[in-house]
Amino acid sequence: MSLHTHLLDPILESYRNIGGINHLDRSNLPSKQAIATLCNDLLHLLFPGFFSEEAVSSEELPSAAQEIIDQIADQLESVIAVSLKIRDDETKPNVALRLNATAITERFFGGIPEVRALLKTDVEAAFAGDPAARSLEEIVLAYPGLEAIAIQRVSHLLYLENVPLLPRMMTEWAHSRTGIDIHPGATIGSHFFIDHGTGVVIGETCIIGNHVKLYHGVTLGARSFQKDEQGEIIKGLKRHPEVEDDVVIYPNGIILGGDTIVGARSTIGANVFLMKSVPPDTLLVRGEQVQTRLDKKGKSNAPVIVQLHEDEIDFMI
């Protein structure tokens, strides 16, 4: 007999009285552990030989790839079927859900070659854009931005299939590992590089062009939320900005709003807060800053005016 039976009744009473965070007498939900395993396996598939305990030869690649494809396909069909049951009628036959999940899985694998082609450009952009990078292998194995982008790109395939829960759980797995929060709904072009990355947030309806570079702390977020007559937030609207080709956004830049466009080839300086569109070829920096320079020996306490100039904005962290 349990020694803690006196603890049970208050907890059960909480279950009865507090709804909204119970999931009882319904179908099961996707397992967070299963999603973690799936994401790890997807990294093996996307970057063969990089995440294996043992070296993989070209001769072994077909059998190794088939093994990981079979493993992922089984996992994916199961979690997609569970997710679809939540989205659709829970009374829908499991056979029908599984058939739909199988079809989505087939289309998912059909998108993998294109995702890998994009990831190759992401690796190239990181190597070209970071003088600290010594090799492509270092980028694949050690750069958190690439891992976050890789999981977002594959989860985006499932997002486009209108699979609930699963895509978001995948990107949150990457978020928990990297500190980079990219919604699976975001549309991201080629040669995307997130340098350092900690604290980067990219919203669901954000559109990012080609050859875009972000530094840590950048937020591409929503400005405000439209509400219906009942005061509820209206879902599905364009809420996040568009960043056109060849844009650089330096640390802690905050760009908000669904109608905000950062024009091609623009540079957004550090700590800029932006809620209006800027045309192409714009250099946007903060104005004068007042800083105090203190002499350690107590000789001077004079304020220093610091003005950022165009030639000072092209820095590397």
Q: What does this entry look like structurally?
A:
The protein has a domain at 26-179: serine acetyltransferase, domain 1, CATH 1.10.3130.10. The chain has nine helices and 16 strands. It has helices at 8-17, 32-46, 61-87, 94-110, 112-129, 136-142, 144-160, 166-178, 310-313, and strands spanning 181-182, 187-188, 193-194, 201-202, 207-208, 213-214, 219-221, 242-243, 248-249, 254-256, 261-262, 267-268, 273-274, 283-284, 289-292, 303-306. The strands form four sheets. It has a five-stranded parallel beta sheet. It starts with 7 loop residues before the first helix and ends with a helix. Residues 303-317 have low confidence and may be disordered.
Question: What key phrases describe this protein's structure?
Answer:
alpha/beta; 317 residues; globular; five-stranded parallel beta sheet; 16 strands; serine acetyltransferase, domain 1
